[in-house]
Amino acid sequence: MEKLTFTLVTTARKLKPYFEAHTINILTDKPLRRAINSPEAVRQMALWVIELSEFDIRYQSRSAVKGQVLADFLTEFTIIKDQRAKDTSIWRIYMDESSNKHTGGAGVVLHTPKGDKIECMIHMDFSTTTNEAEYEALIEGLDLAIAARAKSMIIYFDSQVLISQVYGSYKCKNERLKRYLEEVKGRANNLQIKLV
Predict the structure, then answer these.
(1) CB of 109 closer than 8 Å to CB of 117
(2) Does pLDDT of 12 surpass 80?
């Protein structure tokens, strides 16, 4: 019980504004409420109990997952061997990056046609230029899109140089960037992509 209580206290500390503004419903199959309110727990975890008492926390027993819900889930998300995706909706990918002489990083956000959002952070633990970081972000974005089976996408990017190199209006002269460009073109072969 101490571990569960400590987890709850840690979560409450990290999400304090949320805990203060809302009623928190804890779904658990453990007797957490009894453990926190028992005299033995007060002796062992007195400070945690006091800290948690300032929030409106309600403990509810977790109900069993109904069999039909699980069957519906499996039916909806199971792909039959020859089933083809007929959804030609456009996916949106947003990217940004930064670099310095020691390290680099990038963020990629993929928006599905249904409105879901997939976020990815990339840490480049090597010396990189801004253009290399931009290519790393683009490659990661394309990998995410391919993994999600996206076929048509708009990629929002803040690098005119990279966009021009991919479309061929600028020539790529740097050997390292040429390898990145080949990687991008290899991934984009079977995709409909518009870089913006």
Answers:
(1) yes
(2) yes
Q: Where are the alpha helices (DSSP H) in the chain?
A: 2-14, 16-21, 32-37, 39-53, 67-77, 130-147, 160-167, 175-187
Cβ neighbours of 28 (radius 10 Å) = 13
| Residue-range domains of the chain with CATH | 2-61 (no CATH), 91-195 (3.30.420.10)
What phi and psi, each to the nearest 5 degrees, are found at residue 124? Answer: -100, 105
Q: What is the largest CA-CA distance in the chain?
A: 74
User: What does pLDDT average to over the chain?
Assistant: 79
For the whole prediction, is pTM greater than 0.85?
no
98, 137 in Cβ contact below 8 A? Answer: no
Averaged pLDDT, 74-83:
62
